[in-house]
Amino acid sequence: MWSSLPFDLLANIFSFLSPDSLARARSACKHWHECIDTCPLNTEPIPSQCHPSWFIALPLRAHKLCFAHNPILDNWHKLSLEFLPDLVKPIATVGSLLFLRSISSVVLQLILCNPFTTQFRYLPWPNIIRTNPAVGVVIQNTSQDSQIPDFKVYVAGGMSMAPQGGTTYESKLEMYDSRNDSWQIVGSLPVEFAVRLTVWTHNESVYSNGTLYWITSARAFSVMGFDVDSNNCRELQVPMADRLEFAALTSRNGRLTIVGGVCGEDACVWECRDGDMWVLVEKVPNELGRKLVGGSNGSWINTKCAWNNEVMCLYKELGNGMVVRRERKEKNKWEWVWIDGCSSIRGKRVHNLPIKGLLLQPSLAPFASKSNYTL
């Protein structure tokens, strides 16, 4: 019966499969292979609860590959990025796509790509050519599950050409809107903010209650916020800012959240409440924290965090393993678990590499659901 189903019905069923299941279905028989390759899959939004997010690890050094952890089967895959013309660094995820910046170019150039289908697209060049700015992403239709949601990209700080020659810290803030595929100047920053966003800020950002936040990369840590509607800037203090060995911004239940750790102590999770007050809400279980840092006196330095609404991962290098906070939907509660790192794939040893991790719900559908993204 399954081999005789019409393509449109079969494609609708295939649309509900996770990428690994879809890949296995593709190799089951000639009929299914032809259906998946030739018949457009259903692009209607499917609840994100159907498929948990995968952890995507990109080496920090210049490698054209990435590694993906399947949380259902608890195994790792290696994906080639040779299809990309440039070497890249990760910034964020946009729907089921990776949002990257080229490191083959000195000035800012941004790329969207699907590592599972090898599709990619360059975003248009910004109006201001700048180097080393902070980049923030705001997803517009957060209530929907789609492969490519509407999104905005904010670029702040960085160095640009000065009118008299040479370079200067760029104070103008520029925004890309995916709905019209164009950039516009939307505000300006105080010079001191532009300097700090250029020198001391990673690309990671968090959007919460109308404000885009970045955390400085130098101790003592601090948080800089930009209200996207009023164009106002503000600075927030970080709890235990001068003692934390690492600090990362996340969001929890829509609230701005910080996770950070001190040598010889548990990592903690703080939420920002009314009046910009930080409240300790949780600690990483002691035994899992020790396993990640290498003992009771281990250092949290070089720890990083990947997160979304369903998962938070604390990790260091590819082979070291991860401490993961995830939701158990059948019990409607959260739990902390350990995930082994990637040391081998199909019996072949994998070198331990410094990585940057992102959480993504993979898709094998082409990103042609909007004309702006048709390749």
From TrEMBL:
Coiled-coil annotation reads none
Q: Which InterPro entries match?
A: F-box-like_dom_sf (IPR036047), F-box_dom (IPR001810), Kelch-typ_b-propeller (IPR015915), Kelch_1 (IPR006652), SCF_F-box_component (IPR050796)
The record's Gene3D superfamilies line, in alphabetical order, gives: 1.20.1280.50, Kelch-type beta propeller
Pfam families assigned:
F-box, Kelch_1
Looking at the record, the residues that make up the F-box domain are 1-46
State the organism's lineage.
Eukaryota, Viridiplantae, Streptophyta, Embryophyta, Tracheophyta
How is this protein named in the record?
A: Protein UNUSUAL FLORAL ORGANS-like
